[in-house]
Design brief:
This protein is α+β, with helices and mostly antiparallel strands and 58 residues long. 47% of the residues lie in helices and 22% in strands. It contains one helix and two strands; from the N terminus they run E-E-H. It has a two-stranded antiparallel ribbon with strand order 1-2. A hairpin with a 2-residue loop joins strand 1 and strand 2. It is elongated, with a radius of gyration of 14 Å. 0% of the residues are buried. The model has no long low-confidence stretch (mean pLDDT 83).
Length: 58
């Protein structure tokens, strides 16, 4: 599979949407494997950054 850019929209800790250029029903399995490998860490990172940004400053 050729590298592609993923767009991940994290709504909550357990709700997110993903899009990627070139995704089709024909290559769905390859993308699913890539999403499974990348998404858990990406969502954890996004949630940690969001929590850090929302902390009150003193």
């Amino acid at each position: 599979m050729t590298p592609v850019t993923f767009e991940i929209y994290v709504e909550t800790a357990s709700a997110f949407d993903v899009s990627a250029d070139g995704y089709t029903e024909a290559n769905k399995e390859g993308y699913a494997a890539a999403f499974d490998a990348v998404l858990p860490q990406a969502v954890r990172s996004a949630n940690a950054l969001r929590a850090q940004a929302q902390r009150p400053t003193r």
